Amino acid sequence: MKFGTKVIHSGLQTDPATGAIITPIYQTSTYVQKKPGENMGFEYSRTKNPTRSALEKSIAALENGKFAICYSSGMGAADAIIKLLKPGNTIISNNDIYGGTYRMFEKVFSNFGLNFKYTDLTNTTNLNSLISEDTKLIWIETPSNPLMNIIDIGAIKEVVKHRKDILLVVDNTFATPVLQTPLDLGADIVLHSATKYLGGHSDLIMGALIINNSELYDQLFLITKSCGAVPGPMDCFLALRGIKTLDVRMAKHCQNAIKINEFLSSIEMVDRIYWPGRESHKNHKIAKKQMRKFGGMLSFTLKNNSFEDAITIISNTKLFKLAESLGGVESLISHPASMTHASIPKEEREKNNLSDSLIRISIGIEDAEDLINDLKQAFNGAKR
Ligand SMILES: *Cc1c(COP(=O)(O)O)cnc(C)c1O
Question: I want to staple 55 with a disulfide (CB 3.0 to 4.6 A). Which of 20, 236, 288, 295 is the partner?
């Protein structure tokens, strides 16, 4: 089945009780049993709920996986992965992972005897030199935030494939299965913040893991039902509804990004543009090999690298709403140096190309001309 059909039909089953075409919101905590242990497949909603099961089947199909488990947030999903490990284990990740993931590693799990190492994984030799006996997990995010670095998933797998005890986790939140399917490239676990593109309407918080190996699925399922970070049925319903338009939404996000990239390239004030679809992007070749399109996330800097001008621009846009998060139908704009990455000292930030004037946009599915006009007037407001 092709992707555009999967998003509509996968996981959906006509309701056996009523014939309802849409999976109902099974707003129930428990299920009546005929005799102890004799039930219709559901006992208690922390373990399993029919609305959630439908969503899990749908998400698994989109990522070409056998199994999916949904969580009450992307971080809830990430937390379940780390609970596969034991004290003394080491996790290696790219040095520009999502800030929330970094915080969870450093502020929570470093207290549990786990070790975290960070490096630039766009270069796989960096991985080779960090791997040891204790390494049990490689955690990558591609494209990364906010500079859209691209990591070659297949090449990373190649480095670790002789080590059956190392799991490769790919956070596929930015790319979505429309642009890349990491399980096909050798990943063991795919992670989503379904809050972003999968849900797609900025109206829910949710996470998901997708797995092919049934033993690994059983372990994660046990962790999930034991620890309990499961989403409610209403949120699962919203995610199922959002997913139906994932394919058409992504097509528009990507198309708008092409036009906005062209527009920004013509603006005198703009210095660097970080978007993997640009031939000048340092990982463009890998992006071209690995991704089907280049996505709707883009960042850029200003020639004078002025913090104040960046603030003026992000405050001046009207359609691009100033907010954290991404992947919704509405365009968002943010300023990493004063928002998501404000806790990193300026010298550290500059070293990693997180300049004072860096602006990140999540390009929505509005009309591209209106979005361009909005940016135009915001730039004009910053001219001195
Ligand atoms: C938002 C995000 C997360 C965390 O997901 P939540 O749903 O906010 O808990 C993880 N990874 C990436 C890349 C994200 O953008």
Answer: 236
How far apart CA 380 and CA 384 sit, in angstroms, is 9
Cβ atoms of 363 and 372 within 8 Å: the answer is no
Counted domains in the chain: 2
Residue of the CA atom closest to atom 2 of ligand 1 = 193
Q: Are residues 214 and 360 in the same domain?
A: no
Q: How far is the CA of 35 from the centre of ligand 1 (A)?
A: 42
Q: How far is the CA of 77 from the centre of ligand 1 (A)?
A: 9
Instruction: Give distance in angstroms: CA of 75 to centre of ligand 1.
Output: 6
Residue-range definition of the domain harbouring residue 334: 246-383
Residue 93, CA atoms < 13 Å, CB-side half-sphere: 21
Which alpha helices (H) appear in 198-333, and where do they start and end? Answer: 214-227, 233-243, 246-265, 284-290, 307-316
Q: Which amino acids bring their CB within 6 angstroms of ligand 1?
A: 73-75, 98, 100-101, 141, 171, 173-174, 193, 195-196, 205, 207
Looking at ligand 1, which atom is closest to the CA of residue 325?
A: 1
User: Chunked in runs of 10, what are the mean pLDDT values of the chain (384 residues)?
Assistant: 96 91 97 94 97 98 98 98 98 94 95 97 94 98 96 98 97 98 98 98 98 98 98 98 98 98 97 98 97 98 96 97 97 94 84 93 98 97 83
pLDDT value for 377? 97
Q: Which of these three, 243, 273, 290, is where a domain ends?
A: 243
Active-site residue, 35 included: no
Please report, for the domain that includes residue 108, its CATH number: 3.40.640.10
Q: Is 136 helix (H, G, I), strand (E, B) or coil?
A: strand
Q: Is 98 a catalytic residue?
A: yes
pLDDT at 374: 98
